[in-house]
Write a structure and sequence with these properties.
mainly alpha; globular
Length: 82
């Protein structure tokens, strides 16, 4: 199952993926309170899963940046929830 999901994600163009995630983040930041926070947490969970699956493929500098961005998304979600 995991390999199938990763294969399907690999077929998406990088531009479409960037714009899709950008739209999700924008909508989550505009939505009020808990709804936006839960949407951001769902995005962080998906990004964390993808990062865990592809961890060995990235150089160490890229890993650090991805973890930092993931932490920022979680921090935004917590801020929206409180």
């Amino acid at each position: 199952m995991t390999q199938r999901v990763l294969t399907r994600l690999g077929r998406i163009s990088p531009t479409a993926a960037f714009l899709g995630v950008g739209v999700i983040v924008f909508v989550a930041l505009v939505l009020p309170g808990a709804v936006g926070g839960v949407l951001l947490l769902a995005l962080a969970a998906g990004a964390g899963w993808l990062l865990a699956q592809t961890w060995s493929l990235h150089p160490s500098r890229a890993r650090v940046m991805r973890v930092v961005i993931l932490g920022l998304i979680v921090a935004l979600a917590v801020a929206k929830l409180t």
